[in-house]
Amino acid sequence: MPEPLMQARPKHNLGQSGLSIGPIAYGCWRFAGSDVAAAQNKIETAIACGMNLIDTADIYGIDNPAGFGSSEALLGDVFKAQPALRYDMVLASKGGIEPGVPYNSTKTYLMRACEASLKRLRTDTIDLYQIHRPDMLAPFEEVADALSTLRAQGKIREAGVSNYSPSQFRALQANLDVPLASHQPEFSALELGPMLDGTFDQCQETGALALAWSPLAGGALINGKTDDKDLATRLYAVAGVLDAIAAQNSVTRAAAALAFTMMHPARVIPIVGTQTPARIKEAASAIRVKITRSDWYRVVEASLGRRLP
Ligand SMILES: NC(=O)c1ccc[n+]([C@@H]2O[C@H](COP(=O)([O-])OP(=O)(O)OC[C@H]3O[C@@H](n4cnc5c(N)ncnc54)[C@H](OP(=O)(O)O)[C@@H]3O)[C@@H](O)[C@H]2O)c1
Predict the structure, then answer these.
(1) What are the tens digits of pLDDT across the range 194-203?
(2) Which of 122, 168, 249, 296 could disulfide-pair with 76, CB 3.0 to 4.6 Å?
């Protein structure tokens, strides 16, 4: 019987902040509406399940009538209702997407964006502030200056990036005095990019946290919905292997899919996005899933649609 790979689970630390992070995180992209009690229940459920990194962004809510900033504002309302919750979590947010532009990582914009986020979130500091997407027009020196200034002012504790390539990460890092604390790429059993393009190698090289967005491919891995024929074939194959792993561990396919991401040696932290408290609990069972080396590679081969040499 091959040895399962997920046994010891050392803590994840956020940069130099001294803050510890659980193996799974909770995300607020879909966190919307005006029911503060329901929103509080989701956050409390996530934290109770060990998902203490809560990831949001100023842009979240843009697709809802409440618009830009509304997801952060809802989290701020939760803190107003239950102030202690702010101290039970590691609060992560993002800035740098400016509606209609679309990207802006100039110092002036990021300083303003971060201050607006703090106000909406009703807090004095954001534990992890991430540049949401690379701004091709912003010199890395200027982005670094913005992040260093925000850090010196105590408005953020640590800085990270999302959707950055490894070379963009390196260029930004070269202008900073402290290590970037995180990379946040899309990663799931269906989207293997960051383990093939050097992103996760860089996390292991630098110690940056590897945060994975849409670890269930935005739900497609569970509900199988896609109009793309090639993707549908891969999805069907990946789902088959995940279902076998799930059956061996008496968990759901969602838990098996999350466990697949967590097994990568970059010590990936999947950010789950469900708005259903029961599914948040279901996601937490991913930490006890054991996947053999050969089954993990079977998921990879199903996802790539070819055998590895
Ligand atoms: N940095 C970036 O550019 C970026 C981009 C996208 C997302 N993110 C981050 O990543 C987080 C997660 O993204 P995501 O929401 O796309 O993640 P996900 O976990 O891949 O997908 C969540 C979606 O799957 C659905 N779902 C269906 N069955 C499920 C099950 N059994 N268990 C759990 N979910 C199920 C959920 O619906 P229900 O709500 O109905 O359960 C929800 O719509 C976001 O909140 C955000 O923090 C970052």
Answers:
(1) 999 999 999 9
(2) 122
